Amino acid sequence: MKARVHVMLKNGVLDPQGEAVRHALGALGFDGVEGVRQGKVIELDLAAGTTEAQVNEMCEKLLANTVIESYTVELS
Amino acid sequence: MKARVHVMLKNGVLDPQGEAVRHALGALGFDGVEGVRQGKVIELDLAAGTTEAQVNEMCEKLLANTVIESYTVELS
């Protein structure tokens, strides 16, 4: 089974990487880019029977810094 | 409107960051993690009327290194 985890900076946390991308897109002539947030996506190949609770625990312990980041888990 | 872009290393391209995460999860006692790939997710706030073709062009020109990375675009 597979799990996909998205880790994004929480709203209100400054995202300098996203700001740099927004600025660079403007400089390349792409108008109308009003905001950019950049995060991580982590694709996990898991043994059958792994539960969503275990994936959440991986996020809490390692994958996300829950002080400033939020995460979402999709199993497939 | 919003667009979400996923940028992942292509299959066959070594992903040391993913390998490090896999190793760290094992060290934390999470068994059954067979593979990890890590990529980027970029959320764009776009002016109304921006087309998917324009977002693809942003990916080709800036967001992804298409030599080693593939990207997918979701508009919403």
From TrEMBL, chains A, B:
Q: Which domain of life is it from?
A: Bacteria
* Gene3D superfamilies linked: Phosphoribosylformylglycinamidine synthase subunit PurS
Offer one example of a GO biological process linked to this entry: 'de novo' IMP biosynthetic process
- Classification via SUPFAM superfamilies: PurS-like
Q: In which pathway does it act?
A: Purine metabolism; IMP biosynthesis via de novo pathway; 5-amino-1-(5-phospho-D-ribosyl)imidazole from N(2)-formyl-N(1)-(5-phospho-D-ribosyl)glycinamide: step 1/2
Q: InterPro entries from the entry?
A: PurS, PurS-like_sf
Tell me one GO molecular function of this protein: phosphoribosylformylglycinamidine synthase activity
**Family stated for the protein in its record:** Belongs to the PurS family.
Outline the subunit composition: Part of the FGAM synthase complex composed of 1 PurL, 1 PurQ and 2 PurS subunits.
Could you tell me what this protein is called? Phosphoribosylformylglycinamidine synthase subunit PurS
Which organism does this sequence originate in? Answer: Planktotalea frisia
Upper classification of the organism? Bacteria, Pseudomonadati, Pseudomonadota, Alphaproteobacteria, Rhodobacterales
